UniProtKB/TrEMBL annotation:
It comes from the Bacteria. This is ATP-binding cassette domain-containing protein. NCBIfam families: oligo_HPY. Keywords: Amino-acid transport, ATP-binding, Cell membrane, Membrane, Nucleotide-binding, Transport. It is a peripheral membrane protein. GO terms for molecular function: ATP binding; ATP hydrolysis activity. It comes from Sinorhizobium medicae. The keyword Cytoplasm does not apply. The lineage of its organism: Bacteria, Pseudomonadati, Pseudomonadota, Alphaproteobacteria, Hyphomicrobiales. Gene3D superfamilies: P-loop containing nucleotide triphosphate hydrolases (3.40.50.300). GO terms for biological process: amino acid transport; peptide transport; transmembrane transport. It holds the Pfam family ABC_tran.
Length: 331
């Protein structure tokens, strides 16, 4: 049984101009000890999907799913108290910006201890010991002294390490990390990624890592899910998807990443780009959402419903002509 199971997840957001179909028909699963990276352009629904798992969607958003389960238990029908128990104890959260994820009016120690006192035990000395221990394990020196500091007294890298420590305080089985390295420089980013992978191996934690950086995907992912316009358009083993993508959008994303391989002398390599823009998600979308931007589009793409997963297939490729396009890519 998968640690997290999502089937036909849909999220609608009520706006002044109508209902926005922000997330549409998502199917995903995450196993214990596995890293699933979710990648896509800004605005494709990655963060909303993550918030729906822990019941943190804004009031204007409506969520429905055929199945949304953690460790076999249905999340959709949990009470507010049960969701609060799930957050922290079952599922740890690491947000993109630690300055908004941490309370600026409370010391680091108080915020870490709150998690322990809420989910593990009411002994304050044990909570303080645990806070020092987890700060030390995430690479923060002089951890006992740091407990007395406020978030603004720490660098961005240290604040992100505090967020990781906080996510681990109640020993969760799954961690959802929403672009936690976006605001960090490359050196600190590499340290944070290495730390997450090390802690994951040590504790057998499932990890959902949301990013727009394919370099991060290559570094840490076991599996990858590519999102476009609220849909998952491709899933698969990370190495296979990055080396031989099936969906034209995945291929286009990869072409936009600068190559680290030196070009032959006198040969210029043009960086790829995706023409057009992401479609508005108000109302019904006919056919393939990527069709207006796809170089290989055909008439059928604009009218036919694209199946999420063909019968008998294990992985997703939301494209009518996936195999033909693969041949075109390698021609």
């Amino acid at each position: 049984m998968a640690l997290l199971e999502i089937t036909d997840l849909n999220i609608e957001v009520v706006t002044g101009s109508g209902v926005l179909h922000a997330v549409r028909g998502i199917d995903l699963a995450v196993n214990a000890g596995e890293t699933l990276c979710i990648v896509g352009e800004s605005g494709c629904g990655k963060s909303l999907m993550a918030l729906s798992i822990t019941g943190l969607l804004p009031p204007v958003a409506r969520c429905s799913a055929t199945r949304l389960a953690f460790e076999g238990h249905d999340i959709q029908h949990l009470s507010r108290r049960e969701l609060e128990d799930l957050r922290g104890k079952g599922i740890g959260l690491i947000f993109q910006d630690p300055m908004t994820g941490l309370n600026p009016t409370m010391t680091i120690g108080r915020q870490l201890m709150e998690v322990h006192l809420r989910h593990v035990g009411r002994d304050r000395e044990a909570a303080k010991t645990a806070a020092v221990s987890f700060l030390t394990r995430v690479g923060i020196v002089n951890a006992a002294t740091r407990l007395r500091q406020y978030p603004h007294e720490l660098s961005g890298g240290l604040r992100q390490r505090v967020m990781i420590a906080m996510a681990l305080m109640a020993h969760p089985r799954l961690i959802i990390a929403d672009e936690p390295t976006t605001a960090l420089d490359v050196t600190i980013q590499a340290q944070v990624l290495s730390l997450l992978k090390s802690l994951q191996r040590e504790h057998g934690i499932g990890l959902v890592f949301i990013t727009h950086d394919l370099g991060v995907v290559a570094a840490i992912a076991d599996r990858v899910a590519v999102m476009y316009a609220g849909e998952v358009v491709e899933t698969g083993d990370a190495r296979d998807v990055l080396a031989d993508p099936r969906h034209p959008y995945t291929r286009a994303l990869i072409s936009c990443v600068p190559s680290t391989t030196p070009s032959p002398a006198g040969v210029s390599v043009e960086l790829g780009m995706i023409p057009g823009r992401v479609p508005l998600l108000h109302g019904r979308i006919e056919g393939c959402a990527f069709a207006p931007r796809c170089a290989l589009v055909r008439d059928r793409c604009n009218t036919e419903t694209v199946p999420a997963r063909p019968a008998g297939a294990v992985e997703i490729c939301r494209c009518l002509f996936a195999m033909e396009k693969r041949e075109s890519f390698h021609a």
